[in-house]
Known about the structure:
The protein is mainly α. The protein contains six helices and no strands. The chain has helices at 2-7, 9-25, 32-56, 58-63, 71-74, 79-100. Helix 2 (9-25) runs antiparallel to helix 3 and helix 3 packs antiparallel against helix 6. The protein starts with a helix and ends with a helix.
Amino acid sequence: LAWVDLTKARLSSLVVATSAAGFMAAGGPPALCSLTMCCVGTAMCSSSASAFNQIFERDRDARMKRTSHRPLVTGVLSPTQATVAATALGVSGTAVLYVGTD
């Protein structure tokens, strides 16, 4: 659950939904493989951005009631774990988008 909280999966799903809608609105016959790669790469990049946000804001998050339960603030995940995950997601997501979409 900590990893889901770190990547803000619900927020990322909204980003993916709007990306998919934009892909479909572009017109033409939908290429299922490209659409899938677009959604997967976007989800990974959005998750990376959310994780980096929590890394950068962890001191501020600790002072606010609304964000005081986040995994970096509570110590469930270390900043190193979060940084490795955020970097891996960002690099991998970018690669998926580069290779899998046109």
